[in-house]
Write a structure and sequence with these properties.
- The structure is a single chain.
- By secondary structure, the protein is of the alpha/beta class.
- It has a domain of about 290 residues: Metal-dependent hydrolases (TIM Barrel), CATH 3.20.20.
- The chain contains 15 helices and 18 strands.
- The protein has an 8-stranded parallel β-sheet with strand order 5-6-7-10-11-12-13-14. A 6-stranded antiparallel β-sheet has the order 1-4-15-16-17-18, covered by helices on one side.
- Strand 2 and strand 3 form a beta hairpin.
- It starts with 9 loop residues before the first strand and ends in a 5-residue tail after the last helix.
- The relative contact order is 0.17.
- It binds zinc ion.
- The site of zinc ion has 5 residues, from loops.
Length: about 425
């Protein structure tokens, strides 16, 4: 019944932690629950889920462009993004935090506009983030209505934030060059040098679509993966989002470099981009995490949906039910994802790991009968089945309600943003 590296999932289990938020006991129930204990009778206790690729603050753009391919989608979305104010982004992020917590995600990697205030919101909500401020070109201003900083200033900001949050248990900072087709070679070379100097990670979109690969071959004579390798980007710990069209050679390059991949099956399917060669990546030893991408290309942040979709997608493509084990995608959503996003202390329930715990209810028709908890989590569970969430030993979701944020106010604010973007009354 284990799907993580060292720990396991525990029906009717018991979890204890110390005051510092580190697990001290994980295993069978040792006795009746104490006065202050969470009652987990009839539940499954599992590690907090890790969303390895998101653009959280984009929640107000949910449903903006549902029927476009990536290139047309990006043009539409950029038009809307340019009008988002700093306040819009803050409420959008908060909506994502509620949605992620309620569906069991405790840690996420995110590329978007980030500043100290937004990072503080994540920590106050009780979540953990590897945040990568997006950079396009040196002179490009990513989000002019929300922040007039250009790419060069954003690179400097990234280094400052990394220094300010050094040692923080909720916030880690990475460089976020958007993609090889939007960030020119000199920017990518600069990012590699800065990341090496500061010992920071890099998050970048690579080989998401077939046209991207064809353009890269025409322009550089190299696939996008080989191109970023040539520029030094794989000499630092890099998390490559998508790699949908990674070739066999690309996969060997990623494996040799120790680069991780953030795999986003639902987003890749919705945009018609394709399906990443995940079995080949796993066979080559690449660390693969699982992500939702933004809700504008998904349209939810429910990691259980990614787990099931990813698994059955590979089986359909390969016409083989054994091409990925039923627990492989649960591992990507927990232990492997945690390593991919630079939070190796979480994603596993075991003494000494961080106390990021999700309690999943089983009092539903889709959980009946309960033959095997991993089968339920991999193929039947939904985010709505999550009952309680603990991060760093702190209860942040109790009985399906986020205790650290005001969901009703957040939904009203994001609704107003969407109406304003659509041209209606705020
Ligand atoms: Zn993305």
């Amino acid at each position: 019944m284990t799907f993580d590296d060292a720990g396991s999932i525990h029906p009717d289990g018991e979890v204890a932690h110390d005051d510092g938020g580190t697990l001290t006991y994980v295993g069978p129930r040792r006795g009746p629950a104490g006065a202050g204990d969470l009652d987990v009778t009839g539940t499954i206790v599992m590690p907090g889920l890790v969303n390895a690729h998101a653009h959280s603050a984009m929640t107000s753009l949910r449903g903006v462009s549902d029927d476009l391919d990536l290139a047309s989608w990006l043009r539409e979305i950029r038009r809307a993004e340019l009008r988002l104010t700093a306040e819009d982004l803050r409420w959008g992020l908060r909506l994502a935090l509620v949605e992620m917590l309620r569906s069991g995600t405790t840690t996420f990697a995110d590329m978007f506009l980030w500043d100290a205030g937004l990072l503080g919101d994540v920590a106050a909500a009780g979540m953990r983030v590897m945040a990568a401020p997006t950079v396009f070109g040196y002179e490009s201003v990513g989000y002019p209505s929300a922040d007039p900083r250009d790419g060069r200033a954003t690179l400097d900001l990234t280094e400052r934030l990394a220094a300010d949050f050094a040692g923080d248990r909720h916030v880690r900072i990475a460089f976020g060059p958007h993609a090889p087709y939007t960030s020119p070679p000199e920017v990518l070379r600069d990012v590699a040098a800065r990341a090496a100097r500061r010992d920071l990670r890099v998050l970048i979109h690579v080989s998401e679509t077939a046209p991207e690969v064809a353009d890269s071959l025409a322009l550089h004579g190299l696939t996008p993966v080989a191109h970023v390798e040539r520029l030094g980007l794989l000499e630092v710990p890099t998390l490559v989002a998508h790699a949908v069209h990674a070739t066999e050679d690309d996969i060997q390059i990623l494996a040799a470099a120790g680069a991780a991949v953030a795999h986003n099956p639902v987003s890749n399917l919705k945009l018609g981009s394709g399906a990443a060669p995940v079995p080949a990546m796993l066979a080559a030893g690449v660390t693969v995490g699982l992500g939702t991408d933004s809700v504008a290309s998904n349209n939810t942040l429910d990691m259980f949906e990614e787990v099931k979709t990813g698994t059955i997608l590979q089986r359909g493509i390969h016409r083989a039910a054994d091409v990925v084990a039923s627990e492989a995608y649960l591992r990507m959503a927990t232990a492997a994802g945690a390593r991919a996003v630079g939070f190796p202390e979480t994603g596993v329930l075991a003494p000494g790991r961080w106390a990021d715990v999700v309690v999943v209810g089983t009092d539903s028709t889709r959980a009946t009968p309960m033959r095997a908890p991993a089968s339920f989590l991999g193929f039947a569970a939904r985010g709505d089945d999550v009952r309680h969430v603990v991060v760093a030993g702190r209860l942040v979701v109790r009985d399906g309600v986020v205790t650290t944020l005001d969901e009703a106010e957040i939904r009203a604010q994001v609704g107003a943003t969407a109406r304003r973007l659509a041209g209606g009354p705020a």
